[in-house]
Each structure stands twice: as C-alpha cells, then as structure tokens.
C-alpha cells in the first residue's frame, strides 16, 4: 500500500493550551480515513495545520514523499491537498458555478494581463474552466443550481458546492471537516454515496465527522484524538471495541465542551 500523507509528531499550542501533542498518522493512497474525537479534541486544528492555515510548533507533514510547506495554504492546495470547512465558507454572493470556477483557477495560468486583454489562450482556458465547473456541479448533483447565488442554496447543497469547489483544485487528498453537519438523514445517505464515488475516482479522503454511523460505514481506517493526542488508529470494527475510545468518545458521555 502506498503512503500518501504522513503526519510526523505534529504539535500545536495556543497559549497555555496544547491543542495537538505529538500526533503521528499515516494515510494511504485511495482510502477514506476518519478523524474522530470529542469536541475540542484537536481535529480541526489538525486540518488547519495540514492545510497551512496554522504553522505547527513541532513536526511536519510529508505528502507524496515531500515535506509540505507549513503556514502557506495556497502552496498546500497546489501540492494537491484540498479542504472544506466546518462552517461553510463559500463566496456567498457569487453563483454556484463561479464558486467552482474560483477553485479551478489555481490550476490555470492566465495572469491579470491575460484577463485584461482577453487573449486567445485566456479565453480558451476560461472556456475549459467553465466546462469543468459544470462537470463538477453535475458530479456532486447540483448542476441545476449552477446560476443560483450560493447563499440561496439549501444547507446540504452548500456543503456539496464546497466539495465541488475543493475538487476543482484537482486534489489527491480531499479533507472534509464535518460534511454531514446539519444534514438530514436523506442528505447524509447521498453524501455517503458521493464520498464513495470520490474514493472510487482515486481521490483519498480525510474525514472529520461526528456522525459515528457514517464514519464507521465509510472509513477504511479511523484515528481518534482526545485532548490533542492520538489514542487509537485502526479499522472501524477495532476502534469501536477500543476501551479508551469508548471512554473518551463512543460511550456517549462526552467529557469535553466547546
Ligand atoms: N485559533 C485558536 N486559538 C485558541 N484556541 C484555539 C484555536 N483554535 C482551536 N483552539 C482550541 O484548541 C482546541 C482544539 O480545538 P479544535 O477546534 O481543533 O477541536 P475539534 O476536535 O475540531 O472540535 P469540534 O469537534 O468541536 O470541532 C480547543 O480547546 C479549542 O478551543
């Protein structure tokens, strides 16, 4: 099995709070890898460090054999790591199509000059970007809303749009931060199918999710964080039996608070 991402001893501190302590894990190419744990365990912080929003205090990420730049989100996206956010972050006043096109622009070469002069290369590139954006809206099942303003889409559709925008950056690793949050049961079933489709198309998925049923039904392997430390990493069936995990998270009595 080929390793896609290796987190090596990642540490992150906020003032007196150690949000991540020495977190190491390995994600293999083609798997859906779950990251679970109680509120405040450090899951989103892990995403933020991985995707360059925060600089770690210790450790590094190795992606495709090379160390990922830290604290530089645009370079991390360019390396092939895309993400969605727990609190949806779309360009709310733009259309669904424009949101996806914005994601694809990291892969296009036209500079400001090309856009201003509308040279042949830029016009052709823009045509391909539009075509690809429509394709991705179809892929996530919301093509009919292409010209709708993002803020007017339903919550579930906004989450799908975020996924389409992330996919437009042509990632090898797609990191989804609580994609099922706020979704009803039907939307969650569709989301599961979409993530399976994404994996089927060769994109590795890292998933933070509180819907335990979804995580256990979807993930090949799961890591559990508690107070910033990894307390387990295994296949779902084993994680569900793990005493430490049951105590910290799966037992129902969550001991953390926001
Ligand atoms: N920018 C920040 N400044 C200070 N503290 C922060 C910051 N970001 C996160 N924290 C703290 O770090 C800890 C880990 O938070 P994080 O959001 O990573 O947890 P989480 O596992 O994603 O939780 P949830 O499931 O509630 O989203 C929390 O105690 C949180 O309050």
Automatic annotation (TrEMBL):
GO terms of molecular function: ATP binding
Keywords of this entry: ATP-binding, Cell membrane, Membrane, Nucleotide-binding, Transport
PROSITE patterns: ABC_TRANSPORTER_1 (PS00211), ABC_TRANSPORTER_2 (PS50893)
InterPro entries cross-referenced by the UniProt entry: AAA+_ATPase (IPR003593), ABC_AA/LPS_Transport (IPR051120), ABC_transporter-like_ATP-bd (IPR003439), ABC_transporter-like_CS (IPR017871), BCA_ABC_TP_C (IPR032823), P-loop_NTPase (IPR027417)
Domain of life: Bacteria
Domain ABC transporter: 5-252
PANTHER family for the chain: CONSERVED COMPONENT OF ABC TRANSPORTER FOR NATURAL AMINO ACIDS, CONSERVED COMPONENT OF ABC TRANSPORTER FOR NATURAL AMINO ACIDS-RELATED
This protein's name: ATP-binding cassette domain-containing protein
Organism, as annotated: Aromatoleum toluvorans
